[in-house]
Design brief:
- Helix 4 packs parallel to helix 6.
- Helix content is 36%, strand content 23%.
- It is α/β, with parallel strands linked by helices and 233 residues long.
- The protein has a single domain, classed as Rossmann fold.
- The protein has eight helices and ten strands.
- It comes from Acetobacter thailandicus.
- This is ABC transporter ATP-binding protein.
- One of its GO terms (molecular function) is ATP binding.
Length: 233
């Protein structure tokens, strides 16, 4: 239904989020993310990071301005169109979003199965390959509450990168994680960018920004005044 974007993957055009609905400062947010670009944004509050990713996904009502994904204004779309577009978004979130009554493998594949027309066998094959990439012994079948914290983060990585997303909205969950997981995560980001995915990496401190500034095409800080560009260096 939708093809790869030729213009901005994501555009915030003086978007003023509803504070009551999001907790974000009700000020204009503006930025553009082109295919293959990576914006690292420092957001010291996890709930704000999640709310910002929600706004990019069309889940936060706006008081003014617009948020466009692949050139389409979320506010102009019907629910079916929004669902189709969200099938092109990969997310890692601090917000718990694992259904406890299902095996983790179902939680990994639900987004693709709900928002796309992909066959389950195809989703399982790709998810199994990604599980190996992120250091899991296979596609996890146990319930999420039976996995270690590190393995659940590995599973979150699998879910985020599944389906060759057009944009990745990644809240940093990698603090104190094994080096192999961090290396796999960075490798997956590079591979996604090579396929022209746009990446927004939301981090809690500027130490991560400095450490991975070679990955970033732009760096930002989310503060009470909105998004502030950060100079590299």
């Amino acid at each position: 239904m939708y093809t790869r974007a030729t213009g901005p993957v994501l555009e915030l055009n003086k978007a003023v989020p509803s504070f009551d609905e999001s907790g974000l400062p009700p000020v204009p947010f503006s930025m553009k993310l082109m295919p293959g670009e990576c914006a690292i944004i420092e957001v010291r509050d996890n709930s704000r990071a999640t709310a910002f990713a929600d706004m990019c996904s069309g889940l936060v009502p706006l008081v003014d301005g617009a948020v466009k994904f692949m050139g389409l204004d979320w506010a102009d779309l019907r629910d079916r169109e929004k669902n189709a577009l969200r099938g092109r978004i990969g997310r890692m979130s601090h917000r718990s979003s694992w259904p406890d009554f299902l095996g983790t493998y179902m939680g990994i594949g639900l987004q693709q199965l709900h928002h796309t027309t992909r066959d389950m066998s195809e989703v399982v094959i790709e998810a199994t390959q990604l599980s190996s990439w992120f250091g899991l012994p296979g596609l996890p079948v146990l319930r999420p509450d039976m996995l270690s914290e590190t393995d659940l983060i590995r599973a979150s990585c699998v879910r985020a990168f599944l389906g060759n997303p057009q944009i990745l909205l990644l809240e940093n969950l990698l603090e104190a994680c094994p080096a192999d997981l961090e290396e796999a995560f960075v490798g997956a980001v590079v591979a996604a960018r090579n396929k022209e995915a746009g990446v927004i990496w939301l981090v809690r401190n500027n130490t991560v920004q400095r450490r991975y500034r070679q990955l970033a095409t732009s760096m930002w800080r989310l503060v009470d005044d909105g998004l502030v560009a950060v100079r590299a260096g």
